[in-house]
Specification:
This protein is α+β, with helices and mostly antiparallel strands. It has a single domain, classed as 2-Layer Sandwich (Endonuclease, Chain A). The chain has five helices and eight strands, in the order βαβαβααββββαβ. It has an eight-stranded mixed sheet with strand order 1-7-6-5-2-3-4-8, sandwiched between helices. The longest helix is centred in the C-terminal third of the chain and has 16 residues.
Length: 158
C-alpha cells in the first residue's frame, strides 16, 4: 500500500501512467476536460487500448465537465470510443457539478490519482488500497448518479 503526495506536473503525469498500467478491470475518470490528464498523448492512448483489448470485461467510464476539447482535439480517444463502444463510456456531466474542482482517476477501486484542483498539480496517488480509495470511489458513484449527456464517437445525421 502506497499513498504519496504529488506537487509537480511531471510527478502527476508519471503517476497517471502508473495508474493506467495498474488498471486491470475498471477505470473511472472524472475531470474538467481531460486536457491536464493528457490521455490523448500516444503513450496514454496506447495504455488505454491495451487495457481495453486485454479482456472483454474491462471498462472505462469517463465523466467530464466540458466535452469541447475532447471532441475537437482528441482523435485518438474518439477512435477508442468508436472501436470499443461497449467497454468505453464518456459522459458530459450536468452543469450543477461545475463547482466540483477535483480530478479523479480510479483503477479497480484500489489505485487512484486524485488531483485536488483542476489548476494545480497538487495530487495524491494511492496504490493498492481499497480502503483509502473508498471515499473517492463513492464520490465518483455520486457524480455518475447525476447523469449527463453521453458522448458518441459517431455523428448522427438525417
Amino acid at each position: 500500500m502506497v499513498s504519496e503526495l504529488i506537487t509537480t506536473w511531471t510527478e502527476h503525469d508519471s503517476a497517471l501512467q502508473k495508474i493506467l498500467l495498474l488498471a486491470s478491470g475498471r477505470l473511472r475518470i472524472f475531470d474538467e476536460d481531460l486536457s491536464r490528464l493528457k490521455l490523448e498523448q500516444r503513450e496514454s492512448a496506447e495504455h488505454l487500448q491495451r487495457f481495453l483489448t486485454a479482456h472483454r470485461q474491462n471498462s472505462v467510464c469517463i465523466v467530464i465537465k466540458n466535452t469541447g476539447p475532447l471532441l475537437r482535439e482528441s482523435p485518438l480517444l474518439m477512435k477508442l470510443l468508436a472501436i470499443y463502444p461497449l467497454q468505453m463510456t464518456v459522459l458530459e456531466c450536468p452543469p450543477h457539478l461545475a463547482a466540483f474542482d477535483a480530478s479523479l482517476c480510479i483503477a479497480d477501486d484500489k489505485h487512484a490519482l486524485i488531483r485536488f484542483s483542476k489548476d494545480h498539480a497538487r495530487s495524491r496517488i494511492i496504490i493498492d488500497s481499497a480502503q483509502e480509495c473508498s471515499p473517492y470511489v463513492h464520490q465518483f458513484e455520486e457524480i455518475l448518479k447525476e447523469g449527463g449527456e453521453q458522448v458518441s464517437a459517431t455523428t448522427l445525421g438525417l
